[in-house]
Amino acid sequence: MKIDAPRQYVIDNLKYALNPSSIAVVGASRYSSKVGYKVIEGLKNWGYKGTIYPVNPRANQIGGLRAYKTILDIPGPVDLVFVAVPAHLVKMVLEHAVTKKAKIVVIATSAFKEIGRVDLQDRLTQFCRDSRLPLIGPNLVGMGSPYLNFNCGFIPYLPIKGPVAMISQSGANLLAALGASKTTNFGMSFFVGLGNKADVDFSEFIVYAENDSNTKCLAIYLEGMDSPEAFIKACRSVVPKKPVVTIKVGGSQIGVKAAFAHTASENQGTSDDYFDKIFEQCGAIRATTWQEFLDISLALGMQPELKGDRIVMITNGGGSGLLSCDHFERCGVPMHELKVMSPNLGQRIRTYMPMFGSPLNPVDIAGTASPVQYKGALRQAMRDSNVDMVYCSICPTAVTDVPAVVDVAIEMYDTYKYLGKPFVMECQGGAECHEAIMKLRDHGIPAYPTPEQAVNAIVALRKYAKIKEKLAKR
Amino acid sequence: MPENAKPAPAYLLGTDEKQKWMGDYFFAPRGLGFLEPGIVGLDDAKMSAYNVAKSSYQIHPEVFNMDYLSKAVGLGRDEIIQRMHRLYDEHLIVYVMNPAVSVYGWGLYYWLVKLREGTAPETKAKLAEWFQDKDDICTGYECKGDFDFFNGNHMRVIDNLLADVIEPWKNNPEVEYVHLCPIRRCLRESHINMFDFSGEGYREVVWGKDELAKLAKHQDKMDMLDLKILQALNAKRPMEEVFDFKVLSEISGLDPKEMLSGIKELVETKRIIVPLFHLNFMKLGLTNHVFVIRLFQNVPCCRKAQITDELSRIAEFNTIMEFSDSFYDIIAWAYNEVNDIKALKEKIYSYSEIEDVKEADMNRMFRRWVCRLDDQNGFWEECMFTDDFLQDRTEKNGVRCCHARKEGE
């Protein structure tokens, strides 16, 4: 339901969604294969230290914990009520939650507006609003934070710690990101599924993320937007401090219907241009594919914005250099020749390449490049005051010592981080490159397996700088 | 729709369209999955009244029509609510729903298991635990007498039953035989006449003469007023008198009129489900005596149906069903402790068409109507519906119902 602006009482209570002292799991099950069991199992296994109250009128004990017939039978206070009962019981549970003075309620249950029960969802939402009880969902998968060892929902993964706050209407896509977190070193500060977002809106989690010290970048997956004014207000507040990346789906002819069937998102009468304008107004960076969404969120979470377009690419593979420079141009950020950017830089870098290398830009230090040559070239480029950022690529030839080059890159990045220039890497190849990417990301360097992904990330860093400049002028 | 495609049949079960269909075919249409016209899924909006009551009667017995109950039992509303709380909390009653399986398209296969003489008690106990934990078994009892287990499954594919449920233990050395008993007619369950009861007796509550009075005396957990409440809860009456739709609506937020019309259609018009309160007879110290009756194979099926109907007029039988394509033809249950079992046996044996009767007493219950009844294990009223629809259980490691637990979990 629509809101005009992020509501303070909601924002104040969102901390109970991610860091509650006590949780009532309504619909807790004794059966290990059911959602109501998985929620409790997840909470315990991932290290939740608060009190868990299973609620199920049929059971005395669940997962070794005493079960209660209703929330009202729980002896202590309840911060968070997690609801995993059929839709026809949700009204009663909400009434109990209000009576119990719970701080926030999260409804995983489906079968509301998305199947046509608009009136029921709206009435329940209004009841929560009248009672000042923030409602997250319904029809969601859960939420959590690796910093708090908190995983509340039917989610089999807890992501690794990192800079990205992921706010997603889709549970499946959120799970995809969570599942890949460990295998790709994509770190998150917190994550939340919003589902139908009947009450708590994107904008309120945006404000929450603004104040979350672990969050450096917000990644938002939208299927619909009920409250554009609130979204714009929230983004305008956060964007000067933290970048916002969005992906908006459900814009195709059939996608409009699919988005309604999925999360009751209404897109009739909107268009891609409509959302482009909204995102432009609020300073969000829009991705068009899921991979791009993840790639640029990671870069924006790890690196400072790119203040100029003087980008130097150091590579041992001419092919990756060409793919990169072409893609930069397609994205409206053309590369410049080294001699144009910094007259002496090319000459200095030449020292670190064989005679058949090319100091053009991309700087091809050739397939025989050793860690020593990488180190020299990177150092020259990073130190040069006419260079805004360095982009490094590794193509594993038979003589490339990938792990050693990675160590060199990390050393150079750590050494010159104080200069505030972004550093991005690309490693295209086999298993050693995957390991390289993992290690680089572990050290805060966004690294990617293809040139286009790396370029997209760099372009987003540049866009963010421009957005900040624009906002500063307002 | 492509030009040459035929539209789906327009008949609805229980309607004139069905009769028209019968003009072209010589057998009644049978349901297939939830897509069968006229059939509803268990989470369909038409099921809402039942579903809301089923999910909340444990804490809100007033989902049932207290005005009616008050008049029928002669107690005040609060007293009835208080008693219903106690009856549930002590696991004496459980609210369930019996679907007309032949209409829904599930086969309902019962099966008897006989262990060899001299089987060690621990061997029988091990098999009993396997049955207890096998979620696909929707009804199950351990017995003592001519056979050792009487279990049942909802399944659409008989090979799935054989491969997944029977095969794992069928060739154990202690197993003497397994006899499948597919249900043809469900006449009475837990004292309530079902869809296939002949004549006008559908949904009538049936107890033997003085049976309730004897039951009240036999134990101290349910007095006569409790038993009257149970009887009134199950009594045949229109749906508006069964539930309090205002309360159902207050709990769920759903429209009371829609809930009423949905459940009326299913229970009263189409007769495809019967909601009922099942009595946990074992908690009252009762055991069911089970007669499994075999007719001579030259008895025509019309006579078999008549015999079953005649037996179903005996009110002491709380459960009676007719089998098909089986060694056995009829099953009938009556409580040992409050009935004259000898007299019932004599009535059964008075039929010269009967070739053999197996008898056993139920001494442990696993599940009934997909609902776990083993409160000793802490699983009271845990419901598991593990339909085999769209599944091939003959494949090892094939796709399973998402909620079914793996063995050993």
How would you describe this structure in keywords?
heterodimer; A: 474 residues; alpha/beta; Rossmann fold; 7-stranded mixed sheet; 5-stranded parallel sheet; 18 helices; 19 strands; elongated; B: 409 residues; alpha+beta; Alpha-Beta Plaits; 8-stranded antiparallel beta barrel; two-stranded antiparallel ribbon; 12 strands; 33% helix; 22% strand; globular
How would you characterize the overall build of this protein?
The complex is a heterodimer of chains A (474) and B (409). Chain A is of the alpha/beta class and 474 residues long. Chain A has two domains: 8-300, 3-Layer(aba) Sandwich (Rossmann fold); 304-473, Rossmann fold (3-Layer(aba) Sandwich), CATH 3.40.50.261. Chain A has helices at residues 8-13, 15-18, 35-45, 87-99, 118-130, 171-184, 202-210, 228-238, 253-263, 272-282, 290-302, 318-330, 338-341, 345-350, 371-383, 402-416, 431-442, 451-473, and strands spanning 22-26, 51-55, 61-62, 65-66, 80-83, 104-107, 135-136, 142-145, 150-153, 161-168, 188-193, 217-222, 244-248, 285-287, 311-315, 363-364, 389-394, 423-427, 447-448. Chain A has a seven-stranded mixed β-sheet, sandwiched between helices. In chain A, strands 2-1-5-6-7 form a five-stranded parallel β-sheet, with helices on both faces. A five-stranded parallel β-sheet of chain A has the order 16-15-17-18-19, sandwiched between helices. In chain A, helix 11 (290-302) packs across helix 18 (451-473). Chain B is an alpha+beta fold. Chain B is 33% helix and 22% strand. In chain B, the strands form two sheets. Chain B has an eight-stranded antiparallel barrel with strand order 2-4-3-11-8-10-9-5, surrounded by four helices. Chain B has a two-stranded antiparallel ribbon with strand order 1-7. The mean pLDDT of chain B is 89. Chains A and B meet through helix 4 and helix 5 of A and helix 2 and helix 11 of B.
